[in-house]
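Hi R.,

Here's the chain you asked about this morning:
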Amino acid sequence: MTPAYAAFTERGLRLAEKLAASLPGSVTRCGHGGPALAQWTAAEFVRSDALVFVGAVGIAVRAIAPHCQSKASDPAVVVLDECGRFAVPILSGHLGGANDLARQLSALCGAVPVITTATDVNGIFAVDEWAKHQNCQVLEPARIKAVSGKLLAGQTASVWSEFPLPGAAPAGVIPTQTQDAADFALTLFPAGNALHLVPRIGVLGVGCKRGTTAEQLEAAFAAFCETHGLAPACICAAASIDLKQNEAGLLAFCQAHRWRLSFYSAAQLQAAPGTFTPSHFVQSVIGVDNVCERAAVLAAAVSRSERPQLSVNIAWTVCTRWTKIYRFVSRTKTRTSRPCTVSFCRNQTVILHMSCFIPTITIAATNFNSYQKRVQHVAVLFLFGEN
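And here is the predicted structure, written out as tokens:
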């Protein structure tokens, strides 16, 4: 998280600069030769994932009010008084991370974090905050209220997961055997009326003809997800061959989704471990028999080494252990089937493949020499309690 700080007085500016020295971000004094508050807020609300106002809460509320849209998309907003006595999260406390940011800022300047979200003040498990910490996308933010409401009323909330959930569950949370019976579900394949939490663990490998447009890629991706019942939100990165690094449609497609895009040479792709769907035509043209599957596998293997440290101040944490292998049936132009991660071919224009990793949690994946050389193996273990 990179905050944008706004101050209004000389004293407030000094506090903002002190905070930015430890938690880096841009520092602006609104007015007094700087931008108008309305101008600054409009720009940073779109550009930044966190806004910190050093001043009165009322000033911040009036500034952000025209821009608030949804708890799923609004940035975190925290207000500190210019003396640094109180830090008040006023927007996106859980999903946006404002509560955590208020605590961080308080630790830096000795302020009191003023947390007002009901689950926090009552010591109740907050499903949206847990999802945020575990790098999961909340598909239906409006359903958070139903889960939290049950727990706050002293009732139980049921959870279903594709992944094992060993350990002691938070108070009021009970496992259930089916997704249909769950109040919230941890899954890559959402179905039913539960609140769905989707781990952002997918790498999309892309092979496409020259001149393929972003619209064609978008249509193929939508069909890819619909075919397999896959949540598009699980994808967080993409990969292809370096010959495509100037392909305008591919670049625009990935930029629209805010995916990191990696490219690999034919030699690197050829060296990817595993068994892949070969194409003699592709081999003859670019020197490697498969682009999308090999690229996805390589990018997944690289990304798992870049995960940051996991915060453990919530009810569930994650442990590295092999627990589950995803096996899907690929659909290729030859109509052959084999165990692999999701693959899809559409009109010979776009070929997509998904491999998985856990970028911000823990990965146990891509042990290709085991499991009979299957393309990709992913294991994810979500735990109740610290391990």
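One quick note: The chain is about 30% helix and 25% strand.

Cheers,
M.
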